[in-house]
Amino acid sequence: MYQIGDIAWRLQLGETPLKDLESPRWYIKKHRYRDAFDSLRRLRNTPVQAARDLYYIHAQVRLEEIMLGDGDITVSEGVESWTTSGRYWIRFKQLFLIGRVRRATLAAFVVMIAQQMCGINIMAFYSSTLFVDADASERQALLVSWGFGLINFA
Fold first, then answer.
1. Percent of the chain with pLDDT over 70
2. Which of 68, 89, 72, 94 is nearest to 81 (CA)?
3. Do 24 and 39 form a contact (C-beta atoms < 8 A)?
4. Can you list the pairs that 74-83 forms with residues at least 24 positions away whose Cβ atoms lie under 8 Å?
5. Measured in whole angstroms, how far is the alpha carbon of residue 11 from the centre of its chain?
6. Which of 6, 49, 51, 111 has the lowest CB atom count within 10 Å?
């Protein structure tokens, strides 16, 4: 978003949901497996890797459908058989009712809040503005911000 002007930040925020509309996972949720495979082929080195990932995503989406489903769904895998009626909500309640799980949930919550409050997100989101305010050119600021994001990604 170089040399766009005052609306650049709106365009950057607005494009994020659009990029994810046609992800392999979205295609699988819509039962468009061929499109999902084609999308994965562009991301993977070989068709075998794409097929493997297609199966993994399909299995994960299916399990989510079972876990979040409304009715009594019995899943049989070999000897094991279980019913998922209300399973999601039972597990959600266990986050707060079982002592050791509650403590782990609280610890995860504290870490997430600490990450939000430590200030690194401000640097990540406003780094290009900060560099421009420090007398860097707009192009240099964007390149430095890109490098900062790359380092954080790795």
1. 77
2. 72
3. yes
4. none
5. 20
6. 6
